[in-house]
């Protein structure tokens, strides 16, 4: 677990009684590589929030909430999330997701966070799927059950989280938390059963590929170059060949006197 604050806003949370505009949760694997990718996403969110004068917090669940068993199921985090400094919006994304803060916050300001909103890029089963227990695939088109593509990001409103919190028990119950096959489908089904709220699909905003109109989009990290000095020994070196179509970005984070410096490249 990282022992220093991941976001500069985090250390102020207990002293600040104002609500946040948004709280972000970067869903990642507990690995060195994913930790670095999540750190990059976190830094991007923080910088954009500062530029837009938005009050935000960013969490990486497997680092920040180690007491929650089964964080990967998402709904197991809801009780813990509800105990945080209140936010108008709760935004979930992955370590290969990226935000366009201008578009995202502009979209959210037109919605009422006190109402129950669940927004993202909707997926559906076109054929029977056993891991989804065949749920909803044969419903009429207008009633087809949609679940979010978490790589494109999805959003819950404060009103929805408050409603879900009423029915939540302990988020760390291992019997409930560990039985998860497809978290995307299960969190959507949980929200539907508990709050009767269906996913509002906005694929033009929550995108599987980069686009100028996207609020959150997925872009796969395919190459990794550089060296890393971290609090997790030993020193590691990763190398990969670059191509003319690759775009490099460098992220530097300071933590208790240590510096994580790594360069990664995306395909254009």
From TrEMBL:
Q: What is this protein called?
A: Hexosyltransferase
Instruction: Give the species.
Output: Ancylostoma ceylanicum
Tell me the name of the encoding gene. Acey_s0541.g3175
